[in-house]
Design brief:
Tetracycline Repressor, domain 2; mainly alpha; Arc Repressor Mutant, subunit A; homodimer; DNA-binding
Chain lengths: ~210, ~210
DNA sequence: GCGAATTTTTACCATTTGGTAAATCTACGA
DNA sequence: TCGTAGATTTACCAAATGGTAAAAATTCGC
């Protein structure tokens, strides 16, 4: 472990690590950290448990690896918020991107939600180093837009919270949403329309 | 279990069941269902593990009891949505009540969120019998308001989702919120202001 | 094809955890 | 105060679970 340059991974290592992480994402997001077992992950991956421990140092290593890899994808929509674009359209496009992610990557959303829900015991450092600076930067950008008068007065921090909350809700609370919505309706289309109206109303009020 | 009328619980039973449930709420909300152990709950409650199993049939029994008791409290703010009140003020008051609950009962919020996040394996029946009818009823009420022209066109289902999502976010994602917000600021006051503006904008747009 | 390195399996193990049986202690009404 | 129903503790247990050692199998550069 105190070795210098890590050997570049073989094709087998690349493939198996990917297979294991995909299985682990499925299992962790469905059962939570403690509810997930190495046996479940092993079965899901089609790889024996000791073999999984050949590729990862342990259960926690798999979990942390997943969360770290996820973080980049997760923050990407916010990174793309363009200082040079039209403020209202930029923010609405951000809402749409976040909603698309909730639709396309619900397991990732639930994995992240589960970690935060339990106090972010394994990802707090990353939140400080990755999320916090980006959050501050984009809050400053939105504040600038407000000060320039191109946006009405609003709280950038809580605006972003509202966007996160409303979009991720469809992935994180999917079980509830499915019970409450008519099964044939396309929840995401309706949600997209609703959220566009909701946030546009706030961003364009006179 | 096939007995007829259950004996009325003694004072000791009342007290100990309350103590156990309170400890279990703390432990379940912090660690999730699988992460919570009877030993943790026992320590937190100051009651030995076998003694806990004298009052409850098992771990799942405690969890289900907690969720069932919580459901009533949880739905209460929505029950109070008054068909005879002013639509905009009624909905904004509902938002405030939900936000107050997230502030005052964060453990309950996280317990519920954890259950839904994992597919509501132990509370799905209650969601159908308790939540669904109330949800449908209040959606119909809001639809009526829209049809009467006292509210602008909007999707009642997704409006309620947005209210749930934005308010519960402050309890469920508390760990993240604490990392991102300046520690001295009063998050709930700012959130209340923000959410009032957000939803009022949508409800009063011309 | 061959030897070394990598990968996989087999056979385990210690700990944790939900739960139980039975003995013991305590409260409480007669 | 005494007997009994109710409450609590002690001493367990079986299954699940994260993890390991070492043998066996496979892959790969030459």
């Amino acid at each position: 472990m105190t070795e210098g340059p890590t050997k570049k991974p073989s094709r087998i290592q690349m493939r198996n690590r990917r297979v294991i992480l995909d299985a682990a994402l499925e299992v962790f997001s469905r059962h939570g950290y403690r509810g997930a077992t190495l046996d479940l992950i092993a079965t899901e991956a089609g790889i024996s448990k000791p073999n999984i421990l050949y590729y990862f140092d342990g259960k926690e290593d798999i979990h942390v690896t997943l969360l770290s890899q996820l973080m980049e994808t997760w923050l990407d929509p916010l990174v793309e918020l363009d200082p040079n674009g039209d403020p209202v359209e930029e923010i609405l496009a951000y809402v749409q991107r976040k909603l698309d992610m909730a639709r396309d990557l619900p397991r990732e959303s639930r994995l992240f939600a589960g970690e935060i829900l339990q106090g972010a015991p394994r990802i707090t450092p990353e939140l400080h180093t990755s999320l916090r600076p980006l959050f501050d930067e984009k809050c400053a950008l939105i504040s600038r837009w407000v000060n320039e008068g191109v946006l009405p007065p609003l709280d950038p921090q809580h605006l972003i919270f509202s966007i996160w909350a409303t979009t991720q809700h469809y992935a994180d609370f999917q079980a509830q949403v499915h019970i409450l919505l008519a099964p044939n309706s396309d929840a995401y289309d309706a949600a997209a329309n609703h959220l566009r109206v909701l946030f546009r109303s706030m961003l364009t009020r006179s």
